[in-house]
Amino acid sequence: MKLTLDPGAAALLDALHAAGYAAYVVGGCVRDSLLGRTAHDWDLCTSALPQQVMELFGAEQCIPTGLQHGTVTIKYGGQLYETTTFRTEGSYTDGRHPDAVQFVPDVREDLARRDFTINAMAYAPGEGLIDLYGGRSDLHACLMRCVGDPEERFAEDALRILRAVRLAAQLDFALEEATERAALDMRQSIQNISAERIYTELDKLLAAPAAGKVLSRYGRILAGAVPEIEPCIGCTQPGRWHCYDVWQHTAVAVELLDVAGMDDKNARILRWSVFLHDLAKPECRTVGPDGAAHFPGHNQAGSKMARSILLRLKAPTYLVERASA
Hints:
Elements: H1 7-18, E1 23-26, H2 28-34, E2 43-46, H3 50-57, E3 62-66, E4 71-76, E5 79-85, E6 87-89, E7 101-103, H4 107-111, E8 121-124, E9 128-131, H5 135-141, E10 143-144, H6 150-156, H7 159-171, E11 174-175, H8 177-185, H9 195-206, H10 211-217, H11 219-222, H12 246-256, H13 264-276, H14 281-284, E12 286-287, E13 293-294, H15 298-312, H16 317-324
Parallel strand pairs: 2-5, 10-11
Antiparallel strand pairs: 1-2, 1-8, 3-4, 4-5, 6-7, 8-9, 12-13
């Protein structure tokens, strides 16, 4: 099969191949190309060591963005191309970063360390697609599946739990059964991630096309990032006004949200406001003489809760103020 490569990525591959190195485009750009989507970030992997990459393309053209992990960013044609030496990784003591990496000569060893099958494919002109873990099959099945044992992948880096759900929202995919089970079992480890990274993943998720569907399906996993979600799941509301529990109501509201024509900042404020607007209902819930649930003061309590959550996530100040208001 043949993929249409970004001209800059194709030129860099040609240069690396001409110098005698193995090189491929890898990860999200391969995934998006196979899906017929526009790939925005073209990442390369190569047998060339970082110093060899810098010698080949010159210091003026290279940014040493992560030499200890084998990464050099190459400037070419006004674009940036992250280029990483094939590597394997040691243990993840902090649950986020490998303690050490080892450079290896074979792309197949490199692909084994990656997070999801749909991100573990590499491509080079003339050689074609390298897909050792069924990534192309999972693309056709619209599935997010970890490479290897999902518990090991999530133990290495807890951010992968959120990335799985966020990518599912962006691609309108579902989590494969074992991957979903591991994500749910290990959701508390999300709290070990920096607040800024949690915020970034949630922000991307809320802006994704299938955000509502993913919130509905994976609320308990997301409660690892925002614990206030958990009491909303199954919290019933009076049938006279509501056909959903609090969490499903929130998911449907996010799904039906229309931000067309809004600028990025106001669209973000509205998305987060809808996401957070009812999270205080469970703590305000009462049952009247008629047996129906009521939620007195949930808007005021919700404003305080929204502020608390956004501050905890270190969200931008404008978002904290406007969304809580």
